[in-house]
Automatic annotation (TrEMBL):
<dbReference type="InterPro" id="IPR036356">
    <property type="entry name" value="ERp29_C_sf"/>
</dbReference>
<dbReference type="InterPro" id="IPR012883">
    <property type="entry name" value="ERp29_N"/>
</dbReference>
<feature type="signal peptide">
    <location>
        <begin position="1"/>
        <end position="23"/>
    </location>
</feature>
<feature type="domain" description="ERp29 N-terminal">
    <location>
        <begin position="24"/>
        <end position="146"/>
    </location>
</feature>
<dbReference type="InterPro" id="IPR016855">
    <property type="entry name" value="ERp29"/>
</dbReference>
<dbReference type="Pfam" id="PF07749">
    <property type="entry name" value="ERp29"/>
</dbReference>
<protein>
    <submittedName>
        <fullName>Endoplasmic reticulum resident protein 29-like</fullName>
    </submittedName>
</protein>
<dbReference type="Pfam" id="PF07912">
    <property type="entry name" value="ERp29_N"/>
</dbReference>
<dbReference type="InterPro" id="IPR011679">
    <property type="entry name" value="ERp29_C"/>
</dbReference>
<keyword id="KW-0732">Signal</keyword>
<keyword id="KW-0256">Endoplasmic reticulum</keyword>
<dbReference type="InterPro" id="IPR036249">
    <property type="entry name" value="Thioredoxin-like_sf"/>
</dbReference>
<feature type="domain" description="Endoplasmic reticulum resident protein 29 C-terminal">
    <location>
        <begin position="148"/>
        <end position="247"/>
    </location>
</feature>
């Protein structure tokens, strides 16, 4: 009987401790509430906000943590999170109402521009880290490394898409030379993929090159998403898809100039 009494005394303490741990915010992401939200989102060029339960967990939470890690050194982007409670005083539920965040849709991701904080862009795609980073890049132009991508080669892709035939050949030579200096096997493989795609586009111009990227992206992603594709192959195909995205992003930037 005494043992049972001790259990009933200790159990609430343990549960309280576990709840405190669960409610801790994601390391590197700034926790926002109804009082701090407006003050913070106007301080950075862009703020990427996750609206979620006060006790986030699971695969989607792990993917969000990868985005936070990648964004930590990007001065133009702040990653934040808002925990919305559906119990007690229902903390931050006013922010949920303000931005039409339905708890059935958790997690909800929005990108805020400090120049127009009342018109956030809502993410509507997959919740894996690469999809979230693509969403951020497409709407900000900020670089967040995707699996298989390297900034130096993404920079070359930015030059490559609007270039004429002569410059494209020079950029291919530059990419190949840089690849020879790489020591990491994964980086060398990625460099080879960049160069392979650049060579395939070298004799194509304008819409033809963009058409190649679009068709190749569909082909690669179809294979990647096929249930019969081996897990190891899926990882490789995902890297190819991300590298192709770098070229399509470069093409989109070119069209906006």
């Amino acid at each position: 009987m005494e043992a049972m009494k001790r259990v009933f005394v200790v159990l609430p303490v343990i549960l309280s401790y576990l709840c405190t741990i669960s409610a801790l915010h994601t390391r590197g992401a700034v926790p926002l509430d109804s009082f701090t939200f407006d003050k913070v989102i106007t301080r950075f060029p862009y703020t990427f906000v996750r609206f979620d339960t006060t006790y986030p967990h699971g695969d989607e939470h792990e993917e969000f943590k990868k985005v936070v890690e990648q964004a930590k050194s990007n001065e133009g982007l702040l990653v934040a999170e808002v925990g919305i409670a559906d119990y007690g005083e229902k903390e931050n539920s006013d922010l949920g109402d303000r931005y039409k965040v339905n708890q059935d849709d958790f997690p909800v991701y929005m990108l805020f521009n400090k120049d127009d904080p009342d018109a956030p862009i809502r993410h509507k795609g997959h919740y894996n880290a690469d999809a979230l980073k693509k969403f951020i890049r497409e709407n900000t132009g900020l670089f967040l490394g995707l699996h298989g991508c390297m900034k130096a080669y993404d920079d070359i892709a930015m030059e490559f898409m609007p270039a004429d035939a002569k410059l494209r050949e020079q950029l291919i030579e530059k990419a190949e030379a840089k690849g020879e200096t790489l020591e990491n096997a994964g980086d060398k493989k990625s460099a080879e993929i960049y160069v392979k795609y650049m060579k395939k586009m070298a004799d194509k111009f304008g819409g033809d090159a963009e058409d190649f990227v679009a068709k190749e992206t569909k082909r690669v992603e179809r294979l990647r998403d096929d249930d019969h594709t081996a897990a190891k192959k899926k990882v490789q195909l995902n890297a190819q898809s991300n590298i192709l995205h770098s070229f399509s992003f470069a093409a989109a930037q070119k069209d906006e100039l």
